[in-house]
Amino acid sequence: MNPAARIQAAIDLLDKITAAARDQGGSADTIIAKWFAERRYAGSKDRRAIRELVYDAIRMLGERPETGRAAMLALAGRRPELVEWFDGSPYGPAPIAPGEPIAEAGVLPRWLAEAFAASGLDSDEQEALLERAPLDIRVNTLKADPAVIQAEIPGSVPLPCLPAGLRAPSDAPIEQLPSYKDGKLEVQDAGSQFVSLAAGVERGQHVIDLCAGGGGKTLALAAAMANHGSILACDIDRPRLSRLMPRAERAGVGIVETRLLNPNQERAMLADQAGRADVVLVDAPCSGTGTWRRNPEARWRLNPQRLDRYVATQRALLDIAADLVRPGGVLVHVVCSLLDAEGAGQAQAFLERNPGWTVEPLALGAGTPRGPGVRFTPLRDSTDGFFVARMRRP
């Protein structure tokens, strides 16, 4: 493919991605993967170049563009070398006409910029959300020594304050390593590793991971428990939860049991667990604002109404989780969000609804205190954005 054809391909993909963001369709990664699967003629260099064009355009646009062409014209405004390839060639984009609509560059939608500022996140913090995320690894200490795994990955370095954490070069072929296939390591952002440590689990405890998803944090908890005790991993998403047990088997984890919950029936389906758990982790559904380095088009999906729904869901899940904690046990609230409405404000509201519950200080070696918990940001901590609070039942 010549440069003009690559630009037209990026425009076509951006049209699909903006439509999906508007209609709550598939993610950019999914759309791009499907597009390439249907076009085998695109070589590896073509795929890399097109992907870079698409994501460079997404990252520079805070508001969802009207069209993929408007997005690419905005990128061409910053990269003049692209302009000459709007040449009207058979597989290229039409020439640029005077007065054509051009998308407006920016970091966030205006309403979100206000919400970020109200949450104490300045322009530098906001811009850091659009940098490329690093490649972090959690070594499975049930099977491997971090020093041995580090020696197997050229250029990898230990992550400060994370005894099982490594940061690898961004192009390291992690999933092709025998150690990965043998369950000796997992790809996991440093922020996820920190909030898993914040749970403070110990050998022999009974732990409930209320929103386990695919199980990344579940497996981290099991390793911290040295595979002694029990973990009940729950979720309402069958496809995601179904991936957990194969991962657990690969990792040598034998203390996990899964339970698929029906939406709005979680409390009844967990009645047998009431007052039993030493630790309940609630990694609640959220806006995902902390993960925008990996999913920058997610900025275009969020709106005030959707954020309100997330906040309501988190509140309900925390109330369900509180009933599962034994007296003297711990509830851990986690969101991959930087907004106070989902993080510090949500935890504070829980404490106000539940007199007698107390905040457990977190000394993790990273993060910044925020309300009843700690917040991690890409700018300050070089992690995805997270909030975590650890609260103890009387």
Helix and strand run: HHHHHHEHEEHEHEHEHHEHEHEHEEEHE
Computed over alpha carbons, the radius of gyration is 22 Å
In terms of structural class, how would the helical and strand content be classed?
Answer: alpha/beta
Number of separate helices: 16
> Into which percentage range does the β-strand content fall?
15-25%
Estimate the global geometry from the Cα principal axes. globular
Distance between the termini: 65 Å
Mean pLDDT figure: 95
- Portion in helices: 25-40%
Low-confidence sequence ranges: none
Question: How many E strands?
Answer: 13
Major sheet details: 9 strands, mixed
Descriptive report:
With 394 residues, this protein is of the alpha/beta class. 39% of the residues lie in helices and 16% in strands. It has 16 helices and 13 strands. A hairpin with a 2-residue loop joins strand 11 (368-370) and strand 12 (373-376). Helix 3 (44-59) crosses helix 4. The termini are far apart. The model has no long low-confidence stretch (mean pLDDT 95).
Top keywords for this entry?
394 residues, alpha/beta, 9-stranded mixed beta sheet, 4-stranded antiparallel beta sheet, 16 helices
